[in-house]
From TrEMBL, chain A:
Highest taxon, organism lineage: Bacteria
InterPro entries (alphabetical): Aromatic_CoA_ox/epox, Ferritin-like, Ferritin-like_SF, PaaA, PaaA_PaaC
Protein's organism: Pseudonocardia asaccharolytica DSM 44247 = NBRC 16224
SUPFAM superfamilies: Ferritin-like
GO cellular component terms, semicolon-separated: cytosol
Single Gene Ontology BP annotation: phenylacetate catabolic process
Pfam families reported in the protein's UniProt record: PaaA_PaaC
Record-given protein name: Phenylacetate-CoA oxygenase subunit PaaA
MF GO annotations: phenylacetyl-CoA 1,2-epoxidase activity
Range of residues in the leader sequence: none
Automatic annotation (TrEMBL), chain B:
Gene3D superfamilies for this protein: Phenylacetic acid degradation B
Pfam families: PaaB
Protein name as it appears in the record: Phenylacetate-CoA oxygenase subunit PaaB
NCBIfam families the record matches: PA_CoA_Oxy2
Superkingdom classification of source: Bacteria
Length: 318, 96
């Protein structure tokens, strides 16, 4: 007495409408599953690739304190990647398969990680702006309709707050330092401001999947809504730091109750997303190398585990 | 698709503090149970989230079917007399 697809679909729609969570073994439309796999994989890849720009500075941290903080932060990002791959696996894909797709350039990751980190101020600005934008994106995902994704996001959001605060504190230390340090912070802000705004994705008119994702309650807000929220939150923070956000059109709009701001360069966004950003090739090559260099470790550990099992079961049999 | 070195999936359960049950927190890959414990510590308890960890091979878990209207749970559905509120007791009777 198997339920028809129509009945299953009705149950799925009811669950979504009641704002309940879909769990791994529930029936779900194929397109819902595909959308989630793509989004979660992309998100996981971003966390993993995202370790590189900051990892670049671990060995050159200016003090032991900063080094310990940066190390912990980068380790968290690895953890975020693992939580997310685990969530994706509940949808019936294999982590190894997703990694293969990443290094074969068949799945994307956030465009922001294709920009280089040129000074230690970048560590602070990434924590402040990039993790800040990520938080804006991720907080609503804690209520995403797919249970494992939502739970991973709750875990991640708890840890992100440390990321943003350590970045901001680093910047505070620098702007209270020498003139050269203040200039470093401004220069870094100039480079990261626009790419951070692009993290929310293309403008709503150019984001064909948003409507369906919102109907499925995977997404709760449009790209432009989140971008506006980020700008509104960030401007006062920039004023407290005494840095200028590099946008001549940025001003408070009394009528709207929001900041007006300029249009990011969407041609640059498209170019970076499709592979021609300043660091795309380097990021992928690094990830590929790490994966290949780790192959013998994975194989050796597996062989050791098999040997141990054989020994144990051999003893039991004897 | 699985490469030669691929590791099995483990489900991870963490006891947050003494007095609480172990609660499922997620999963991870490891070559064996001991490595799964170490990875679980690094992945799920970086901020003192646990005092004890269980790991179980995912394939060793037997689960009920997930649907909420599952007939599997029907036996408990119609037994209201299992709940204390089923019994009417005069209000003046104390401590019941
Ligand atoms: Fe993260
Ligand atoms: Fe982060």
């Amino acid at each position: 007495m198997a339920a028809t697809e129509q009945e299953l679909s009705a149950v799925f729609e009811q669950t979504i409408a009641a704002d309940q969570r879909i769990e791994p073994r529930d029936w779900m439309p194929e397109a819902y599953r595909r959308t989630l796999i793509r989004q979660i994989a992309q998100h996981a890849h971003s966390e993993i690739i995202g370790m590189q720009p900051e990892g670049n500075w671990i060995l050159r941290a200016p003090s032991l304190r900063r080094k310990a903080i940066l190390l912990a932060k980068v380790q968290d990002e690895a953890g975020h990647g693992m939580y997310l791959y685990a969530a994706a696996e509940t949808l019936g894909v294999d982590r190894a398969e997703l990694t293969e797709k990443l290094i074969a350039n068949k799945q994307k990751y956030s465009s922001i990680f294709n920009y280089p980190t040129l000074s230690y101020a970048d560590v602070g600005v990434i924590g402040w702006l990039v993790d800040g934008a990520a938080i804006c994106n991720q907080v609503p995902l804690c209520r995403c309709s797919y249970g494992p994704y939502a739970r991973a996001m709750i875990r991640i959001c708890k840890e992100e707050s440390f990321h943003q605060r350590q970045g901001y504190e680093l910047l505070l230390a620098m702007v209270n330092g020498t003139e050269a340090q203040r200039e470093m912070v401004q220069e870094s802000t100039n480079r990261f401001w626009w790419p951070s705004l692009m993290m929310f994705g293309p403008p709503d008119g150019d984001s064909p999947n948003t409507r369906q994702s919102m109907a499925w309650r995977i997404k709760r807000h449009t790209n432009d809504e989140l971008r506006q929220r980020f700008v509104d939150m960030t401007v006062p923070q920039s004023e407290a730091l005494g840095v200028t956000l590099p946008d001549p059109d940025l001003r408070w709009n009394e009528e709207r109750g929001h900041y007006d701001f300029g249009e990011p360069d969407w041609d640059e966004f498209k170019a970076v997303i499709s592979g021609s950003g300043p660091c795309n090739a380097q990021r992928l090559a690094h990830r590929r190398r790490a994966h290949e260099n780790g192959a013998w470790v994975r194989e050796a550990a597996r062989a050791y585990a098999e040997k141990q099992t054989a020994k144990r079961t051999g003893r039991v049999a004897a | 698709m699985t490469e030669r070195g691929s590791w099995p999936l483990y489900e991870v359960f963490v006891r947050g503090k003494r007095g609480l049950n172990h609660v499922h927190v997620g999963s991870l890959h490891a070559a064996d149970a001991e490595m799964a414990l170490h990875n679980a510590r690094d992945l799920y308890t970086r901020r003192n989230e646990g005092v004890s960890i269980w790991v179980v091979r995912a394939e060793d878990i037997t689960a009920s079917s997930p649907a909420e209207k599952d007939p599997f749970f029907a036996p408990s559905g119609d037994k209201v007399y299992r709940h204390p509120t089923f019994y009417a007791i005069p209000e003046e009777v104390p401590h019941l």
